[in-house]
Amino acid sequence: MAGMNRFGAALRAWRDRMDPATVGLVQQSRRRVAGLRRGELATLAGISAEYVAQLEQGRAATPSAQVCMALARALQLSDHEQSHLLRLAGHVASSDRVPRLIPVSVRRVIDQLSANPLSVYDATWQLLYWNPLFTATWGDPGVFGDEDRNAMIVQFEDRNPRVRQNAAERSWFEQSLVADLRTTASRYPNDPDVAVLIERLSRIARFRELWSGPTVAAHESAHKIAVHPEVGEIALDANILPTQDSDLRIVVLTARPGTDAWSKLNRLATAEAREVV
């Protein structure tokens, strides 16, 4: 509990130092205290205000790496501060563990690409960050628990009804993911999270068959079709941007200009912008 109290104290200190204006919050009335309110931090991080209160008071269970990264982004923490936050939450950073810190330099790239559906994954394809247009396109990953927000779990356990794949596309995509995971497993052989993921996936025959093979390769960019309940099918190119030294994967979805898919994506972006306003 003492460690979580230190986590809460750090979270409160960083919240207090934030200037609301730097994150676009207009002050409608005089504030009794400096910094962000709990509800404002919660909104920026995509979590509940009650959960923020529990974290600050040491009443919550250990927050996941995804929650830590959401808080770090909302609080505009430096790389060193993010590392400190992860350590306080019990996420040990070492050379034999899969990196989950999203560096400030990567966050700047993410911000520049915010006009597209975008997500960030670690080397096990665990989802660490997604933007509002990603949610508008594929549905909200936040409705699932942390352990289910993994692209391999979503694929092999058939958890996203908005994805349309024919047999050939599915086969290639799954082969590519498994070859990529094999690369990660060899790079981080002592990471317990990698072992847990492989154990879970091994319950599925399709995965076991592919895992028994020898192929080792990086997952490549792919073509995807999202089936949206309102605008219909959207043909998208999934472009994977690897990051130097962090082993993260930024996935940017784009539609070709002038196409039907491009128009539909613009409609989703416009609708999302209206909701924000």
From TrEMBL:
Pfam family, one: MLTR_LBD
InterPro entries: Cro/C1-type_HTH (IPR001387), Lambda_DNA-bd_dom_sf (IPR010982), MLTR_LBD (IPR041413)
SUPFAM superfamilies: lambda repressor-like DNA-binding domains
CDD domains: HTH_XRE
Residues annotated as domain HTH cro/C1-type: 31-82
Molecular function per GO: DNA binding
Top-level taxon of the source organism: Bacteria
This protein's name: Transcriptional regulator
Organism: Paractinoplanes ferrugineus
